[in-house]
Amino acid sequence: MAYTAGTIILFIFLINFILLISFGFALQTKYIKAFCGFNLSVAVAACINLLLNLLQDYDRIYIINLGSWVEIDKLQIEWEFCIDSMNILMLFVVILISTMVHLYSWDYMKDDPHFSRFIAYLSLFSFFMVILLMANNLIVMFIGWEGVGLASYLLINFWYTRLQANKAAIKAMVINKIGDFGLMLGMLLIFKFFETFNYHEIFLLGYLYQTKMDLICFFIFIGCMGKSAQIGLHMWLPDAMEGPTPVSALIHAATMVTAGVFLVVKCSPIFEFAEKTLCLIAIVGALTALFGASVGFMQYDLKKIIAYSTCSQLGLMFCACGLSAYSLALFHLINHAFFKALLFLCAGSVIHALRDEQDIRKMGGLKSLLPFTYVSMLIASLSLMGFPFLSGFYSKELILFNVYLDHFNYSTFKFSLLFLASILTVLYSLKILYKVFFNKANGYRVRYLNVHEAKPIVLMVYSVLIFFSIFSGYLLKDLLVGNGSVFLANSVFVLPKNSTLIYAEFISVYIKLLVFFIPFIGFFIFYNIKDFNYLNKKYYYFFIFLNKKYFFDRVLNVFNLVFIKLSFDYFYKIIDKGILEYIISGNVRLITILSNFVNKLGQFKLHYYLYVFLYILLVLIICFLIFVK
Predict the structure, then answer these.
(1) How many CB atoms lie within 10 A of CB 600?
(2) pTM of the entire predicted model
(3) Strand partners, 81
(4) What is the pLDDT of residues 521-548, one digit of tens each?
(5) How far apart are CA 597 and CA 573, in angstroms?
(6) CB 72 within 8 A of CB 81
(7) What value does the CA radius of gyration of the chain take, rounded to a whole number of Å?
(8) Do residues 175 and 233 make contact, with C-beta atoms less than 8 angstroms apart?
(9) Is pLDDT at 380 greater than 80 in this prediction?
């Protein structure tokens, strides 16, 4: 039964995509919804079945082998998929949120003439994400990794007549390719040393190559940085908000951007032997958390604020991975997926109600006009802030505790960065709520005339996500990070010297209170600065620095211009127009001389034949002399 459920999960989204992309244009919307709804119901039921099986027998691993793919000498690759305790939790999150986004899209995209194509692309993305999660070797995982990048390109560029959507999709693809190049180098090094791509074989032999692990894991982390938008390779994520809002909720909040965190957690048996890389991961994660929160606070585009929030929260997850608290990173990943998906979908309802207005300065007064959306967004924002006893609180406070306890690797520096990032998270969350719902109406009158609450199916989606945004932390805490829990024993490996989760119970009460009161500190600060004039002469340049995203885009543009100029000067002028053209033109001249000579031979002139005879004779004499020696 479990194997059947796993096979259904593997192929149900592919079937959905093939049928919709082939025949969707000829079907009425109601038939598309019925077919898609049936497939999604089957996928969710199969996932719940697997989850219940693994909750009862958590140390069980299901292997689904669909046959051999490549067999060349030592290189053997099979279509093999694995379902263990970590994979099924990730599958549950991805399939549930994918289902919610599909249902939300039925209302949000109902008037789009390419509705069937959009649903097909969502299904294609979900299929590749399932491949990525279930793969039992690095090659099959890489197919899913590249597949979600392709689906992301198609979805960001769904409205392909918009120039900004074209640019954003290309930017996302190009920057992700930089990370993917690093991941490929890591995979090649793994094959060089281990002579296999199979996860289990690599993990079993990892301790034999401890001196090589820092380099291998560094390249894998570069790939994860690109996919999970860490500082330096983050520039694509905010621009990707050009796609429809359901795309932002599915891809850029809950699933694709978490693939990098998932891969680091999955590869914990080899990352544990790469101490320098783990230290780098923790520092990069802490810097990204602060960067995303500080830039998000100074933005005014609703979706971009939430995008930078995602960037910041991914930094928290990577910081946890750098501390070897992989189960904690997975715990925060799951909690974040629910409340961030809810936040994006609520933002979509607000934008849709105000006729595609995204600037929060032109909003306000929507608390009474969109009451259910307001309550949903309030709960999602409170969970994001880490408000006590909502889902985000349980994982965020533990991450801060573990950073504080990491005494050997710049713990004070990282704790300061994360504490400041958490305060800024509260500030930009309150900024959204204040500007959108509580502030006086600042938009055009015509935009407010037809403001109305979303359809019942959207409110149902909100209700499901609200439930998990409130209770997922409480329900999963003991299972994933509880003392003595062995639910992830088959999936996550931590060296005893790196295990610090248990010490969080004995941390100073003052640190516990400081973390507990972060939301309230943020409330107090925001109350005093909510109407602050950031364009004040004293703070203007600081505001511009944050509003312009630390000028990363400017630096990237200058780098591209320099790179293109050097490419033109060196490769085109010197190599192409210089060396290559000289060689080619020289060959042309040589061929012309030879052809003229042969042509003259055909004119039956005796002296030409004598020349040829003498040349041949000379060559034979030289060869003979060499041979005799």
Answers:
(1) 13
(2) 0.88
(3) 64, 135
(4) 999 999 888 776 666 667 778 888 888 8
(5) 34
(6) no
(7) 29
(8) yes
(9) yes
